[in-house]
Structure to design on (255 residues):
């Protein structure tokens, strides 16, 4: 363990084995940091924060600030960060609004410089969020998604598994799994074929997803008609993933 002599770590902070803390970093609050995590210079971590193993937190990241929410009244909320994440320069992660609520980052995620995770955001595993994208309060991004740079997300939006969001997009409705979404206003422009290949989806699986895409987004059917047609195809796991996402959407679906 290497803690720079200029770092300030207050008494409530619990640090595991082989944790490095860089110059001028300030850790205060009910913080737990597990083994093999590296914290760079000028990092501030405060409040009720749990950080897992093997994380890399770069220069000037700020984790644990009060939510930027006018309804926040000093509630006891927290942040939970999983294992093996990369959190780059100037990333901001704010704790939840509401007593006992959590802002959560999963495992093996990559947050590039300037990314903002607002209060009550939930990010799954193996998610990449590129530079200067802002996820507003209560946004949820599911596993294996890729969010490009400088995107803006409306509160409560959900992004499905294996989705890709194009750069500079304005996201105000839910983004379906497996799809590429981009634009202002955003729209579904195709299947995230490259992302699916990287995750070793077979040609057959990709073909099924492409047909589902054509039924739901490139036919003259409305959502209800498309859902009914896809239900008739049986219990394919990828079709079920898409259907469950569509039927649970509360903000409406990007088309």
């Amino acid at each position: 363990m290497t803690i720079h002599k200029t770092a300030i770590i207050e008494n409530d902070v619990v640090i595991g084995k082989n944790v490095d803390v860089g110059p001028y970093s300030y850790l205060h609050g009910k913080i737990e940091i597990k083994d093999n995590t590296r914290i760079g210079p000028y990092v501030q971590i405060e409040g009720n924060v749990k950080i897992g193993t093997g994380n890399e937190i770069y220069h000037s990241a700020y984790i644990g600030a009060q939510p930027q929410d006018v309804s926040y009244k000093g509630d006891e909320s927290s942040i939970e960060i999983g294992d093996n994440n990369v959190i780059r320069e100037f990333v901001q992660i704010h704790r939840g609004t509401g007593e006992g609520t959590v802002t959560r980052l999963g495992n093996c995620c990559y947050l590039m410089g300037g990314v903002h995770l607002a209060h009550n955001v939930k990010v799954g595993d193996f998610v990449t969020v590129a530079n200067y994208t802002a996820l507003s309060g209560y946004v949820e991004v599911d596993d294996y998604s890729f969010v490009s740079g400088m995107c803006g997300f409306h509160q409560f939006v959900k992004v499905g598994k294996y989705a890709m969001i194009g750069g500079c997009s304005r996201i105000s409705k839910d983004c379906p799994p497996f799809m590429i979404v981009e634009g202002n206003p955003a729209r579904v422009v195709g299947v995230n074929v490259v992302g699916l290949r990287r995750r070793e989806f077979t040609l057959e699986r990709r073909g099924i997803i492409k047909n589902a895409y054509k039924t739901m987004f490139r036919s003259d059917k409305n959502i209800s008609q498309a859902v009914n047609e896809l239900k008739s195809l049986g219990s394919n796991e990828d079709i079920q993933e898409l259907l469950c996402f569509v039927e649970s959407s509360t903000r409406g679906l990007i088309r």
Notes: Residues 203-217 form the longest helix (15 residues). The helical segments are 193-198, 203-217, 223-231, 237-248. The chain has a mean pLDDT of 97.
